Every structure is written in C-alpha cells, then in structure tokens.
Amino acid sequence: MSAASTADAAAPAASPGRRIRVVRRPMSRRTTLLLSAASSVGFLVAWELASRTGLLDARFFPAPTAVAAALAEAVANGELFGHLGMSLSRIAVGFVIGAVPAVLLGLVMALVPVVRALVQPLIDATFPIPKLAILPLFILVFGLGETSKYLVIAVTVFYIVLVNTVSGVAGIETARFEVAASFGASRRMTFFDVALPGALPMIIAGLKLGMNVALLVIVAVEFTGAESGLGYLIWNSWQVFQIEQMYVGLATTALLGFASAALFALLEKWLVPWKS
C-alpha cells in the first residue's frame, strides 16, 4: 500500500452532512488602525520618493510635501475654508431635501401596495437617468443660482435612499408585522415602531452611499456651474496649471469623504447598537 493510500485510509471519512467549521478571528481595533495607518503612510512615502527621484513627473504628480505646503497656505489665507464652506452648505441642503422624503416615501411604498404599484414604475424609469444630465434643465428653470445645485444633489440622494429604504422594509421578518397586528398596533405604530427600526440598517447604508455620491456630484456641478466650492477650486487650478492647488482640492474632498464615513459609522452605532 502506498503512502498516499495509507494517509487516505487514516483520515476520517467526512459524512455528506458534515460541515467543516472555519473559525475567523477578527483583528483587534488597534491592529486595524495600525495597518490602515501603515498603508496610508507607505503610499505617501512611495509617492514622495517617486516624485523626488523623477519616476513620476513632478509637474503632474507633485510630491505630497509640496501639496501639504500648498494646503497650509490655503488654510492660512482662508481660501480653502471659503470653498469648503460653500460645498458643505450645498451638500447639506441638498442631502436633507433628498433624504427625508426618500425615507418617508420608501416606508410608505413598502407598507402600502397601492402606493408601490403607482410609484415603482416611475422610479424604475427615471432612476437610470444620469443625474448630472438634468443639471441643464434645472439651470433653465431655476437659473445659475444655488437652487439648481441643491436640486441635483437632492435628486441624486433621493433615489439611493429610497431604494435602500424599500429593501430594508422588505427584509424585515413577516412575523414582526404579524405580532404587531395581533397586539392591535395601529398603522402609525407599525410605521414607526416596526418598519422604521427594522429598516434602519439599510436606511443608514443608503445614507452613506447617498453622501458619497453627493460628494461626486457637487464637485462635478461646481466645475462649470459655480464660482466657489471644491469643484471650482479643482477646475480653476487645472485651467491655470496650479497643480498643487488642484491636489489641495482633491485631498480636501477625500478627507471630507473620510469624515462623512466616520460620522455615519458613529450614527449607526448610536441608532443601531444591536448591529455593532
């Protein structure tokens, strides 16, 4: 008998119904933070060395230290805060205008079949339309002011949050609604005490996605339709070939996205403690 046959014979036979249990040990928070910091620092160091040694063209990829110097200057003269404040105000107003109705309508659509039958075809037909494509229409109707920018962000956020809200309610166990009905829960109680808490994880996920996409949209809108904001800073810096300033706008947008992710993580931990 060969060695392979002996090993096969010695190994315990796995029954068809037997499952192999794989134990995954999650990393500690400290280890996760250290690895994340190490990857970021390593990327910046590699970029710095590549730019200093000529592996990257410093005209198009300036060293991180040069970008940091330009960032410090923009902070010192207050220019960055002005652009950041305008972008944040536009995002905040548009986000609220789009997210609040989306959550309410999503809950109603999920709980009232008649409303879903009436609204769902309209959502399916208009969702694929690129939201930036309707910016010229909004400009024609509302002009070049802030209203058109608010509405583009609102429409972008609306669809994402709506779809996630409907999916969140659909994922709730039917038994929860049956128990609520057996205890005589009113439609209002079913709406706020069963559907809304049960759909919160998906709603918050939709809010996260909506905020990320809102950052993309506001930068694109400010490229051509604004005279202030992070998008304007990036576009104007590119036009006059101030590449360091352009990277300041890009880095600020990235930091803004990181901050929004951290904020929503805290919000999720507070509102959905059973998920953490």
Task: Provide structural commentary.
The chain is globular and about 70 Å long. Helix content is 77%, strand content 0%. The protein is built from eleven helices and no strands. It has 276 residues and is mostly helical. The termini are far apart. The protein has a single domain, classed as MetI-like (MetI-like fold, Orthogonal Bundle), CATH 1.10.3720.10.
Write the layout of secondary structure elements.
Blueprint: H1 3-10, H2 29-53, H3 64-76, H4 79-111, H5 113-126, H6 135-142, H7 146-170, H8 174-182, H9 187-224, H10 230-239, H11 243-271
Helix pairs in contact: 3-11, 4-5, 4-7, 4-9, 4-10, 6-7, 7-9, 8-9, 9-10, 9-11, 10-11
Helical fraction: over 70%
- From the spread of the alpha carbons, the general shape counts as globular
Cα-based radius of gyration, to the nearest Å: 26 Å
Query: What is the first-to-last residue Cα distance?
Result: 54 Å
What is the highest CATH level, the class?
Mainly Alpha
Count of the domains: 1
**Helix count, DSSP H or I runs of 4 or more residues:** 11
- Give the helices and strands as they follow along the chain: HHHHHHHHHHH
Low-confidence stretches: 1-15
What do we call the CATH homologous superfamily? MetI-like
CATH topology: the name is MetI-like fold
Give the percentage of residues in beta strands.
under 5%
Q: Give the class from helix and strand content and strand pairing.
A: mainly alpha
CATH 2nd-level architecture? Orthogonal Bundle
What is the strand tally? Answer: 0
Average of pLDDT: 85
Largest sheet, strands/sense/barrel: none
